[in-house]
Design goal:
Shape: globular
Strand content: under 5%
Order of helices and strands: HEEHHHHHHHHHHE
Number of domains: 1
Number of helices: 11
Amino acid sequence: MKKAPTLATLAINATVIYVVAFILTTVVHELAHALASLALGGKPVLYHNHVANIVELPIGDVIPVKLAGPVVSLLQALALTPLVLRRRRRDLTQLLFLWLTALGYNNFLGYLFTGPFAAAGDIGAATRLAELPMLAIVALSLVGIGTQLAVIWHLRRPFLSFAFDEAQLATADGRKRVMLHVLMAPFVLGSIVFTLLSLPSPALISLVYPLMSGLPFIMPWQAAANPNTRVGVVASDGQAAVFVSWLAIAVLVALAAFNQFVLKPGIAF
């Protein structure tokens, strides 16, 4: 007898995929910092959630090094956006692409938004080193939060399309339950797991960021109650919600081990 998909299974798979995507996004982000520093004559050491420079760089070179991580995260999101909007399969690969897209945007726009409040953040530090007036930094922050809300609003339907029963899409409560399991639960639970994997951290923002960056997800979760949200959304075959993916769990364990035993001690370039 074929096993029926469940929202609980979907939530487990989505949470595992979320943490995998967050680790991958973070590694690529930090690697961009390290390679930018190396290209400008620095001697970077790549860690699990930051890059240290053995050789102090001139301020003019520090700015592009600070910006390299967020810019590469944005490029990651832009490259994957057409894929997540056009690909019709609703399997775990699609869910990975979707989370890599959302987190890539968050990594750029979140740092843009926190610029006025987090001088230690990548964009906050770069704008201060560039001696931008606070009015300009605040303006960039408003652009960041506005764009971030717009992005996650447009990604609400790809997330909702992981519903596996038309009955789930037919009611406001059904749509919100799907979004709770595929979007909100992975964000909350996955952020806690990732934060624990990030310990210790030299900067408080690295620990606060995972939970804070996903707060815009609350909007599409609540907005799922609006009937317009289901326009163009067709229930999937439930492939992502039938069995807990041991492959995804194995990938997560491997990445967590790499994070703990390779990146935490540091990789010198």
